[in-house]
Prior knowledge:
Blueprint: E1 2-14, E2 20-30, E3 36-37, E4 42-47, E5 52-54, E6 58-59, E7 65-70, E8 73-77, E9 80-81, E10 88-91, E11 94-97, E12 106-113, E13 119-136, E14 141-145, E15 150-159, E16 163-168, E17 180-181, E18 184-187, E19 196-203, E20 210-233, E21 236-248, E22 252-257, E23 260-261, E24 268-273, E25 276-281, E26 292-298, E27 301-303
Parallel strand pairs: 4-13, 14-20
Antiparallel strand pairs: 1-2, 3-6, 5-11, 7-8, 7-12, 8-9, 10-11, 12-13, 13-15, 15-18, 16-17, 16-19, 19-20, 20-21, 21-25, 22-23, 22-26, 24-25, 26-27
Amino acid sequence: MRESVRITTLLNLLSLGGIVETAHFEYYRTDQSRPFFTSSPRVYKQQIGSSVTFTCRVENLGSSVLIWKKDARMISAGDRIVRKDDRMKLHGQSLELRDITEEDTGEYICDVETYGEPISQLHTLEVLVPPRVTSKPSDGRIVIRKGSTVTLECSGDGNPSPNITWTRQNNMLPSGDKSMTGSSIVISEVSRRHTGIYVCTAENGVGKPSSAQIDLQVLYPPEVEIDQSWIKTKDGIEAEVSCIVHGEPSPEIKWFKETMLLEPTNNRHMEVYGNRRVLVLRNFDIQDFGNYSCQAANSLGKES
């Protein structure tokens, strides 16, 4: 089979009789002398920061020129790199690219300029990027009032697109699950029991997972539980009245006997153990009998 390119030579011949005649000589290039690829198009998936070599093998190159291009911009012509990028290097007909970045994603074309139409082979580079996750808001802190609805949200990127998993530090999620997937968690009727640190983790199988935290703080008026006990000591009877107090902002505590505000004395101590507030009455006698209460107050309310 002959290709469509034809070379015609015209020779003017002068005969003995003085008549000019034209002779046509035609030459056809055969397919066997035309360049052709022995490599195949390929999709390369390489991690960011690594290297890749795009393979191009051409037989019968002859005087034809092999050109590498990306996005219609020339990289090399023949054995010379023309792109001003020190990361690129030729290995025979193949092209090496080092220190891959996200911007290197795209199509790389091995193009051969030859007789007739050029021949091309396309390679695709997909850059794999480890996951990155950020919380919304970026400072990872949400303060909300009791009874409201709140959305905890994280956004992740990377290639391939990462999956986001939610957990909660030292506790179960509001749904009762240990973990759940999705870009957000919606909590309705927020209470103090929802206070805590929520962790979103993005994974895509490339590099290490990425995590961010959201510290959820619920503002609520004080909640008070009262308990009392009697202790007999060698010095007499000692009474303890305790209050378990919750509230955010942290409540201020006052102790009362009936309606009288109490202050510390030698026989009356007011102690704090985390959320537990204790009124200790030493050398308890008959005039100490009465109704004792603690009052907790913050900017959102008061409870006793």
